[in-house]
Specification:
Two copies of one chain form a homodimer. Chain A has one helix and nine strands; from the N terminus they run H-E-E-E-E-E-E-E-E-E. Chain A is mainly β and about 120 residues long. Chain A has two domains: about 15-55 and about 90-124, YaeB-like (Elongation Factor Tu (Ef-tu), domain 3); about 55-90, no CATH class. In chain A, the strands form two sheets. Chain A has a six-stranded antiparallel beta barrel. Chain A has a two-stranded antiparallel sheet with strand order 5-6. In chain A, a hairpin with a 2-residue loop joins strand 7 and strand 8 (about 105-110). Chain A is globular. The two termini of chain A are about 30 Å apart. Strand 1 (about 10-15) of chain A pairs antiparallel with strand 1 of chain B.
């Protein structure tokens, strides 16, 4: 793949679940179609959750330099150097601990995702 | 967002760069349009790179249980419990060290991405 191709490539993701509650511990519902992918997970497992920051305005994905923590007294920096949700591809990888499972419902500690956030993946 | 909506949501990503070489250290070219997002990065920074595992057959994204490391002597497990590229959304978050920068070309240590892999994000 050349750079010109990369520019024009669009990648499509399909959610595997959704954050239903951010009341501690966060509750995630896995889509029925993806239930089998949970096989082998155990309470206490530490996992990476990848989720989509769905509340971001699409226009904010075009910002390339921002004030860290929205603090305008700080100089703007490139988004690759800043922890911000304002990113071209607003995916949040977050380390969580699995504390409860009931069928396709998972409860995890450590997730900062808002309710309604599409979940993209769990990785050990 | 309800579960029915999540099922039908499609999320579109646009690459911000591309892996050009996996000869150590890996070389990544950032798209000219995204160059400003690099502002503030320094040699020696530890970063998360998110990249798309582009070589995966689209059919492999539908697999939900696999043999770990492709070893058929092991029982199949859900992909959320296994380190495998065979995932519904094959995104690889990888911790790297930035060792060299020249304009929009970055060299990083620790990236296992194949040449041609679209890069989606860098996060501190």
């Amino acid at each position: 793949m050349q750079i010109a191709e990369a520019t024009s490539t669009t990648i499509s993701l399909s959610p595997v679940g959704i954050v239903e509650s951010d009341v501690y511990p966060s509750r995630i519902r896995i889509l029925d179609d993806c239930a089998e992918a949970l096989d082998g997970l155990s309470i206490g497992d530490n996992l990476w959750v990848l989720y989509w920051m769905h509340r971001l305005d699409p226009d904010d994905r075009t910002l390339l330099r921002v004030h860290a923590r929205g603090d305008i007294s700080r100089p703007k920096r490139g988004v690759f150097a800043v922890r911000t949700q304002l990113r071209p591809n607003p995916i949040g990888p977050t380390k969580v601990a699995l504390v409860r499972v009931e069928s396709t419902m998972l409860w995890v500690e450590g997730l900062g995702a808002k309710p309604g956030s599409p979940v993209l993946d769990f990785q050990p």
